[in-house]
Structure formats: structure tokens, C-alpha cells
Amino acid sequence: MSLVSPSRIAWLWRSLVALLFLAAALPSASAQEDERTLRIFIFAGQSNMVGSDSNAQHIARYPPFAGLDQPQPRVRFSYCLGREEKRRSDGWVELQPVDNVVGPELSFAARVSRHSKAPIAIVKIAAGGTHLGGDWNPDQPSGFELYPLALDWIRKSLAELDRQKVRYRLEGFCWHQGENDMFEDGYRASYGKNLANFVARWRADLGSPELRFYIGELCTKTVWGMDNRANMHAISVGQREVCERDPLCVYVPTNHDAVEIGGDGGLHYHYGTLGQLEHGVNYADAYLKSIGKLPSGARPLASWPYPQGAKVQLFVLAGHRNMEGERAFVQELKGPRLAALRKDNFKIAFKYSLGGGFRRSAGWEPLGPAGLYDTFGPELSFGAQLSSKLREPFAIAKFTHSGSQLLDWTPQGSEAPSRNLYPQFLAFVREARRELEEHGHAVELAGIFYHLGENDMSFGPYRRQAATWLAQLIAQTRQDLELPELKWFVSQQEPTNQEGLNAIDVVGEIEKLAAADPHLIHRKLFELPGRDEQLVITTPGIVALGERLAEHYLKRR
User: Per the CB 3.0–4.6 Å rule, which of 212, 381, 398, 513 could disulfide with 352?
Assistant: First the structure.
């Protein structure tokens, strides 16, 4: 009789433990059917959890979030915010902006309430410029000693509910922090270990061993995403490791969210108003997914739009925040001409990957608004313009990541390998072409339409390398796709106008690149409308961008 080896026993034991953890991670059906028990969510972290550099009066600029500057009377709110001078609620109050500041809890509560009938409450403790290794350390808190302060505040808030005889349960803990730990070698290297200890202590101290944690990714679209690329990557590695080991911890991507524009036209350190609102939606969707209530958002094609055996032209759109459509909202598509763009066009197959894969189409969908937050990109007007002129069938595939820089698209990538996009981009284009061929079509890759990185223009080292990195990207795609004459249509908006950067003639360098390459078409689009900020284009500009890209292609056919 053969004996089971020690290694086999160890494997079986690990598998059993993993299954037990998985079972714990699955939501209880009876618990979720209970729509009367108050769900309590804890929000904690540093400045990008506080809502620094946001303004509640600006919420009206962003139609999907209209009304969130007003109190939400159905949502209880208890808060303690700040470092030296703290702003505290007097017990439980209605959820609303505090001192005109927008935090992620506003949009989180609105979205969760829209998809779940259960009442919710939020306890928020956050302070800018604080460390997990020090201020938030459960074992040896230092600095502003936020862990004991937060624990005391939460316990007092729960005690008040007990006095009111409110039935409740702790439902989730939303954490966004890490920017300050990345600047200290010891804190940065031990972030994963410290975070695991932080999670364990909260569960123990609150008597909630199955408390779910939603760990917000550090936003790489900020200026720190460029000049502290390696440091931010190190923090993200620690966060991801915790979430991979603990099935009750969810890693929440946020680096595709909007970022405040600095006073000099460059990037900021904080999300700002729009980014905070999107930040909250990310947490809400992560929670709704964990309880099985996240809407699918599927937009299937009713039928395949192209005749069997027809040749199909494939247009690939690619780029960063403006190609993604960061500040273009479907609610602003008004009037007979623009309102038509809001409707799905079932005659044009559309495939997309947004936010570096944060949202992907379910195969091919009809061309229509598919943005992350009721947003859209230039593909809508691009498709409409082409369809009015082209008789032959065409499809559109779009790959974007608004939180990326051009370095992320290069074949060699950077010291932050998790941010490398080239392999994903190449696989996406190949997949789109293959799927069309599997439908029985000959496929012509009509071109790659790339809107040059906006963020890169605000950081000297990246602006200086932009032409070199673009050349590497173009050369490698042609080689890997075995299309040496593949056309690249590169559009470029006016770069950031800043005294320290203007000496770097990035427009001239791209022009030189195009002059030496007959299959690289460079288009300066300096007069796009809707330029409220130097970096981002709003709805009118995104519509114009799509139309001008299509017009430029049609002229060069």
C-alpha cells in the first residue's frame, strides 16, 4: 500500500485552507436578503481619501454626479478629518460634503443605494500626509497616532447606534493610502507586511473577523506617477500581495481616474473633484461585485453587421486621457446632430479596452457610449464621420489607458512592470483582427490612430523622450504585426505652455519623425474647442477630435 507523501499532505492542507477562505469570501445569501440591517462602511486613509483640492461647488460641472453636493438624508455619516485641526461631526449626521470638500463617500453611497435597498452608514477618518508605517501603525502608532484615534471614533459611533437600538453590521473598510510611505525606505519596503497587520488588527479590534477590505490603488496619473514611478510601484506590489493572499481583500484600481490640474497647467498630486467622485464609484462597484449586485452593463450586438465574406477595414484608436474621453459626458450630447451619437449604432462593430483593461467589451458591441463614468471618446464622432463617406464595412477597436504615460506603451516598459501596456495593446490588436477573420472576413488594418500622451507634456524628462518612445512603439508594432507599412495617424494637441518646458520642442521632434517616415501621419490639433484646461478636452473637443481624425484619414485614402 502506497503512502501519501509529506509534500502531497502539505498541498492538500493548503488547498483545504484556500477553500475555507473562499467560502468565507462568498456573500451569504440570507445576509444580503436582509434589507433592514444598517450596513456600515469605514473610509480611511490620507489626503486622497480626505478629498484634498476638491470643491463641492464644482460637482455641477460633471453631469453624472449632479446633486451630490446636497445632503443624502438616507445615509448616516460620522467623521473625524484632518491632522492638527480636526473637523468632527456631532454624532451621526446626514451624508454631505464637509467644508466644501468632496470625498469618495459621496458617490459611493449614491451608487450603492441605487443598487441595494439596504440602509447604509459611513464612518470616515482620514488625514493628509500620514503613514501606515507610523501614524496608522496599530502596534506602535507615532506622529498623529491615527490608528487609536480611528478605533476610538468608530467604537463611539457604533455605541451611539447601540443607544439608538439600531441594528447594524460592519460591511466594508475602504482604504486609500501609501503615497507618504513610499518616501521612506523602511516603510516602503515593509508596506505589504504592515498592511496585512493593519487589516488583521482592525478585524480583531472590531470583533469582525470577516470584514472585507477594499484597497485603493495609488493614482499613477498624478505627477508622482512619473517622477516617483518606482516608489509607487513598490507600494502597489505590497498592496497586491495582501489582496492576493486574503480573499476578503479587494484591490481597487483607480489610476484611470481624473486628476486635478495644477495651477501652472501641469499635473497635481490629488484627484480633485471629478477624480474623487470616480474614486467612490470604483469602491462602490468593487463592493457591489462582491455581493453579486454589480450591473452587467452588457451591450451585445443584435446580429453581426457585415455580409458574409465581406472585406472589413479595422480602425484602431489608442492613447491616453483624451482618447479615453475623461471629461466628455453623454449628458452633454445635445441637439439633433450630437444627440444621435448617444444611440448605439448596430451597423458598426466596436471592441474596447479602457483604463488599461479596467473595463473591456464583451466581445464586439455596437458602436456607442461605453465609457467608465457616462463618458465617451472620439470614436463616436469618428465612426459617424466615416460611415457618411465609406461604402465598405469597417469596425473600430479602441485601447486606452488615461492613467498611462508614453513610456508605458514602449516595448521595453519601465521599472514599474505592472504598468507596461505594450503586450496588452499588441494582444488586443491581434485579437480584434483574428475575431473578424473568424467571422469569415478579410481584414485590412486601416491604421492606428494615436493621440499623443497629454500627461507626458507636463514633465520635462518625459516630454524630452516623447519622440523616441513613440518611434519605438511604432517600429515594434509594425514588426510584431508583420505590417512594415502600417499607417500610424498621430494627433497632437498643443503641449503644456510652461516656461520651464517650452524649451523642449516636442512638436518639432514629432514633425521630424513623421518627415522621415512616409507611413507616419502627424496632425497638429491645436485649435480643438472645449479646452478648459491645458491637458484635458471636454465634450466639444472630444467630438471635434473624432471628426478631424476621420476627415484626415479620408483625405489621405
Answer: 398
Cα–Cα dist 174/50, whole Å: 12
What is the dotted CATH code of the domain comprising 24-290? 3.40.50.1110
Could you tell me if 249 and 215 are in contact, meaning their C-beta atoms sit under 8 angstroms apart? Answer: yes
What confidence tens digit (pLDDT) does each residue in 27-83 have?
A: 555 566 788 999 999 999 999 999 999 999 999 999 999 999 999 999 999 999 999
Look up residue 446 and give its three cell numbers. 486601416
For residue 272, CA distances in Å to 138, 215, 235, 372, 460 come to 29, 19, 22, 17, 23
Q: Where are the domains of the chain?
A: 24-290, 312-555
* CB 352, CB 363: distance < 8 Å: no
292-299 CB contacts, 8 Å cutoff, 24+ apart: 292/27, 292/32, 293/32, 293/115, 293/116, 294/115, 295/115, 298/362, 299/344, 299/361, 299/362, 299/365, 299/366, 299/368, 299/370
24-290 and 312-555 in the same fold:
yes
Dihedral (CA of 346, 349, 353, 358) sign: positive
The DSSP code for 303 is S
Residue type at 193 in one-letter notation: K
Q: At what angle do helices 422-438 and 460-480 cross, to 10 degrees?
A: 30
pLDDT in tens, 137-196: 999 999 999 999 999 999 999 999 999 999 999 999 999 999 999 999 999 999 999 999
CA distance linking residue 365 with residue 303, whole number of Å: 10
Q: What are phi and psi of 537, to 5 degrees?
A: -110, 135
Beta strands in 339-454 (DSSP E): 345-354, 359-360, 365-367, 394-400, 443-451
What CATH homologous superfamily does 312-555 map to?
A: SGNH hydrolase (3.40.50.1110)
Q: CB atoms < 10 A from the CB of 121, how many? A: 23
Q: pTM for this one?
A: 0.93
